[in-house]
Structure formats: structure tokens, C-alpha cells
Amino acid sequence: MWIYGARGTDFSNTHDRDGEWTLKERWDWTWADQGIYDVPAIIEKMREVTLADKVNILGHSQGTAMMWYALSKKQDYFAERVNRFIANAACIFADLENEGGETYEKLSNVYWQLEKRGIYNLYGNDAASAGKTGLDCIARDDPDCDYYEGEGILPDWPQLARNAVSTAAFLYFGQLTLERRFQEPQDMLKYFTGERHTALVPLSNIDRVAVSIVHSPGDERCAMPFAEWIYTEITTPDKHLVVHKGDHKTIQFWGDESFASMIDQVIKTGNIVDSSTIL
Asked: Domain locations in the chain?
């Protein structure tokens, strides 16, 4: 089993062009780009090393969002290389009823303000962004960061403090959550001046890769109705929805026994073989 080291993390945070491009260029990507470019790169590496014709992909939360976008855009590519995609905590946008639309509206505006101040990396260890991260903004007691800090985003996600996360990725997630539709990313100036809708990303294009969706009714962010909606939209004939009864806050951690048991059952029922990767 291979584990994907997403760009921006400590495991994938350097580039050949470091020192050449601007911070905006370096961090101008979202998880949609990760699905289109990064996932195929790791698939090709897995196939090269293992000599497997096809692999299996297991995604969790944002890892599923990356794949929904990629599968919608590159169905032929993935159909030739992927046996099955297993989506745990299937997600494209968050549940506004549980988290509050006002919160996402304000947070999206704050992220945009950070971008306008030249801050394109929200968190930690990125030498290229030294002095220009969301953490630095808070450390300087910048008034633009008051709401950003007051919402408890950083204290709630302390593990992100050691990784670099693009502002653009959070802005895209905010747009999708506020609009409650799977659409292409929108320029934030256009978004906040009224052009809030872009072209839809067609989930119905997912018609050749086998899909298993594993979800928990206890998931408050990626709520169960969203998983059911995704399941309804995709058109591949080989698909199934597995409802796991455990508490989402427990099963989301890879090392947890109940999560391991659940994935084991999915692998068995989905006849998963060959190499697999976790997003």
C-alpha cells in the first residue's frame, strides 16, 4: 500500500522552480489540481515499480474531493489504470446547517484578504513563504487576522501548523460550500463582486471506474446526504454505498481498529487486489 504525500506537506514541499517563481505562482493550486496532476503522477510511479496494470485508490474527505474532480475530467485515463476508487467520508463541500453559512462567508473573505496581502500559504514550514503565512499574520497581531484566529481554525487543526496549505485550496472549498454546487474554481474578486457561479463539474461523467462510497451518519462536516447525492450522480454501473455505523470522529483516524475493520470489509466486498494508494 502506498500513501500519497500531498503537495504542501513536509513530505512534498520543494520544487525545482523554488527561488524562481513568485509566491502566488508557487501556491496557485487547489485540491482539484492535485486530482488532475498529482494523483496520476503517483499512479504512474506505482505502476512503474509494481508492474501492476491497474491500482486501487482509497480517499478520505479531501482525498475523495480530489478524485471526484479528477474522475469527472479524466475518465478514460483512470478507467485504464484504476480497478476501484473507495471514497471514505465522501465530500465536495461542508454541511452549512452544522457549520453555519455566515462562518464560511466570513472565513472566505478573510482568506481573500490574506491573499490580497500577499499571503498564499496558510500554515507552517515553508521557507519560500517565510514571514508570509497565516501563522505569521496572527503572530504580528494583524487586524485582518482577527476573525481568522477567533474562529479557532488553527487551534482546531494543530497538525496543519507543520505543513503548508494553499489559501486557494481553502477558498475553493469555501466557494463550493457556500454555493452548494460542484463547480469550477472562481477568481475571488469576481466571486465577491457577484459572479459566484461557474461551470458545473459533471459527476455523471464518472461512468467507467468502479466506486465504493463508505460513509458514517455521524459525520457532521461531510454529511450523509452529500454522500448519497454523489452516489446518485455518478453513473458507473459498478458502485455501492456502505453505511458505517461508527462515530466519524473515531473512524477518521487511519490507525483506529474500527476504521481498519471497515476498510478490510470494503476491500473484501470490492474484490480489491494489486497495489493501492491512500489519499
From this structure: 2-95+200-278, 97-192
